[in-house]
Amino acid sequence: MSVEDLRQSPMMSHMLEALDEGKDIGHYGRLVFAMIGRHFVSNDELVELLAKDHDADEGKIRAMVQQVEEKGYSPPRRDKILQFQSQQDFPICPNPDDPDACNPYQELQFPDAVYESIQEYREEKAN
């Protein structure tokens, strides 16, 4: 998988373009990017991409990426992304009024392990 795979998601493409321009995508933008991006690129590449954010510290980014991986965070659902977005200036979701926009599970194909982890979580929660 690669950055080009991430670009299949309009939301991730939007954030990649902002990062390429050196824009500040905000703490939650970086978190969402890490939670999704880690399934498509290596941790080093993820840090490199996020370090393009002019307001980001590479050490803090590296620590966040490591934490996201160690905790095994699943990609956030649309409602969580919109909740994160409400807490910062940068629009993580470029088209929040479109109910089909910014749903990473519709826009991207994650490794099977992601879906299995989510299913296990739901089963544990139900018990």
Features:
single chain; 127 residues; mainly alpha; 8 helices; 60% helix; 0% strand
How would you summarize what this structure contains?
By secondary structure, the chain is mainly α. The protein contains eight helices and no strands.
Helices and strands, with pairings:
Elements: H1 3-6, H2 10-20, H3 26-37, H4 43-50, H5 58-71, H6 78-85, H7 104-107, H8 112-126
Helix pairs in contact: 3-5, 4-5
Task: Describe this protein's structure.
- The protein is mainly α and 127 residues long.
- It has one domain.
- The protein is built from eight helices and no strands.
- Helix 4 packs across helix 5.
- The model has no long low-confidence stretch (mean pLDDT 90).
